[in-house]
Structures are given as C-alpha cells and as structure tokens.
Amino acid sequence: MLRLFFLGESGVGKTHFARALHQASERANEAFIDVNCSAIPESLFESEMFGYEPGSFTGASKKGKTGLIELADQGTLFLDEIGEIPLSMQSKLLKVIQDKEVIRIGGVRPKKVDFRLITSTNQNLSEMIKHGSFRQDLFYRLSVISITIPPLRERKEDIAMLAYYYLQKFNEKYRMRKSLHPATIDKLIHYHWPGNVRELQNMMERLVITSETNIIHPDNLPSDIQMDRTQKTDSLLLKNMKGKTLREAMEEVEILWLRRAVKQCKTTYEMAEFLGISQSNVVRKLKKYRIKLKPYQHL
C-alpha cells in the first residue's frame, strides 16, 4: 500500500495532484475516492468510512452500506484535510493501514483491501501531535513520502498554463469562445494569488461568464489584480499620509526604513550600507527617533 502525504496551503491544488497521480498509475482504471474529512460530521464519520452491516444500529439501512475505504479497493483513496479526522477514528484508520483490511460497523469478518493512500493537509500536524489532537504513530504511517506543494505565488510559471486550462474548461462548459489578451496574462502572472489555484479557477469561470467581449482585457479583471503591487503600496502610503505635512510624511518613511534596517542588520555600519547613507547619519537618526538597537547590536 503506497502512501503519499501532500502538504500545502489551502487551494494550492492538492486534489488535482492526487487525481493526476492516480490517472498516471497502474490503478487508473479503478476508483478514485476523494474524501474531504472536514466535510463529514464526526457522528457519521465511522459509518461513512467503514460502512455497516444491515440493522447494525438504529436507522441503518436494511441492505447495509459499503464504506468509502472498501470502495477504494484496487484504486486510490484520497483523504483531504486529514487533520480533521476525529481522534477516536484515527486508531481505526491506523489499523486499516497496518492490517490492510476493514471491518464494517456491526460486522465480525474483516475484508482485505488494497488501495493507494494519498493524504493532504494545510495544518501543522507536528503541533497537533504535541497538543494530543493527532496520533504520532498515524502521522508516521501516513508520511512515508511527503511532498510539499508550493503556493501559486511561488509557481509563476504555472499561472498562464492554469489560466488557459480553466479558460478552455469553462468555454466548453458555457459554450463560449473567450480568449485572454496578452496584457491580461501579464496581470495574472504578477498577482500574488492569496487563494491559490482555487482563486484562479473561480476567477476564470467568472470572467468567461461576465466579460462582454470574446477577448478578456485587463479591465475585465477584479481591481485587486488590475492594480500592481507598486500601485497598491503607493495607494496605501497616500491613504496613511492623508492629513499630514510633507515633513511628517518623510519622517514616517524614515522611521519605517530605520526599523527595517535595525531588524535586518547587526551593526550601524551595516545599516548605513543598507540605507545608502553614512554611519554617523544612521546614529543621529536613531537617536532622533529614539529607536533602540537590539542587545546583540552595536554601533
């Protein structure tokens, strides 16, 4: 039973990576069972994952139910948001991984299962282990091969490719013939994408539906994407400086840069080089604004 563990921020595309691995494997013709662990109520988790025998509890179907683990037999089981699995269920999942068999609720005969297990999370499981909300032995069982998926802002080369992929997908879905202007692609590449791939996907669907022309221009984009980082910074600075004199505004900028220098440099000589001014000027300004050096720093 091959086990892979994806780490990454919410929306980076962990499900897409899991599905791509399944489709490229020898199990591609078998089931891919995608389970969002955070979406299953704790009271239903055991019956959904392990299934149950007929009449095993009040309200149970007379035919019984096949659990998601059984459905993944010979295929791939993808457990997204693994950190949300109830602590009481973690030991049962660990046993399935160890013994490669599952027992339904109300059942006595174990059934052998063989599946590729892929899990993912955006949580710090090491911290959860320290606080007793995640089993350490399960963590070690899951993380045989750990892969960290970088956020989209660190994968600039993927942005255009993903934008065209979703453009084609939603053109087909809504029977449109939209295309992206080169300047629009440039804006997308320079945006920081806090919502990662999921944000890009949702935005492309909205653009395909709402843009009035077949060519999607930069002015069709949300204002946050239209405005580059320099413009945002300038806008924020002007907003913060509103009602202040030029001298007051310049002093605030000086304080900001001096504090940054104190944070990054070890001596006032290094600060001088960082700021592009003389060392004596650095010392004078530190005294003027009453900015203290850290204990390990010196003049």
UniProtKB/TrEMBL annotation:
Keywords: Aromatic hydrocarbons catabolism, ATP-binding, Nucleotide-binding, Transcription, Transcription regulation
Lyase is among the record's keywords: no
Residue span(s) of domain Sigma-54 factor interaction: 1-209
Pfam families, per database record: AAA_lid_14 (PF25601), HTH_50 (PF18024), Sigma54_activat (PF00158)
Gene3D superfamilies registered for this protein in UniProt: 1.10.8.60, Homeodomain-like (1.10.10.60), P-loop containing nucleotide triphosphate hydrolases (3.40.50.300)
Lineage, broadest ranks: Bacteria, Bacillati, Bacillota, Bacilli, Bacillales
GO molecular function, one term: DNA binding
Alphabetical list of InterPro entries matching this protein: AAA+_ATPase (IPR003593), AAA_lid_NorR (IPR058031), Homeodomain-like_sf (IPR009057), HTH_TyrR (IPR030828), P-loop_NTPase (IPR027417), Sigma_54_int (IPR002078), Sigma_54_int_dom_ATP-bd_1 (IPR025662), Sigma_54_int_dom_CS (IPR025944)
GO biological process, one term: regulation of DNA-templated transcription
Name listed for the protein in its UniProt record: HTH-type transcriptional regulatory protein TyrR
Classification via SMART domains: AAA
